[in-house]
Amino acid sequence: MLIRQCAGGVVFHEDDVFLLKNDKNEWVLPKGVIRNGKIANEVAIARVRYEGGVDAKIIDSVGETLYEFYSNTRKCPVRNKIQWFLMEADSGDFSVNKMEDFTDGGFFHIDEAIEKITYSQDKSLVSLAYRKYQEYQKSEA
């Protein structure tokens, strides 16, 4: 089994969270594999910018998820372990990278986002991140 260390961002702008729709019609969060000696937070910021055109800063770590799938191209099972970061964008501007096989995306109100998200562990992650984000906003006020 191929095991990959990844990092991604749960990005908020006010009460909206950023999601991407991939070519499998799944609503997901921006993430990528950690390579070339990079560190997780650098990868999360870079993938959010690359996949969604969103400039965001990291507020805190928000947990990890793990999922497995069979890679037809590699002809073997793959396990992705993703370290997630709570992030905040100064604006709701975005630009979905269609060259990376994303077909749609944007900032969605938290309730709509949780309905859209395909995987239950991502729904839980976003709910947790939103509570943490609300606490952060109160502390900054």
Written description of the protein model:
The protein has 141 residues and is an alpha+beta fold. It has a single domain, classed as Nucleoside Triphosphate Pyrophosphohydrolase (Alpha-Beta Complex). The chain contains three helices and seven strands, in the order E-E-E-E-H-E-E-E-H-H. Strands 1, 2, 3, 4, 5, 6 and 7 form a seven-stranded mixed beta sheet that branches. The protein is globular. The relative contact order is 0.26. The model has no long low-confidence stretch (mean pLDDT 95).
Nutshell version of this structure?
The protein has about 140 residues and is of the alpha+beta class. The protein has helices at about 40-50, 110-115, 120-140; strands at about 1-15, 15-20, 25-30, 30-35, 55-70, 75-90, 100-110. β5 (about 55-70) and β6 (about 75-90) form a beta hairpin.
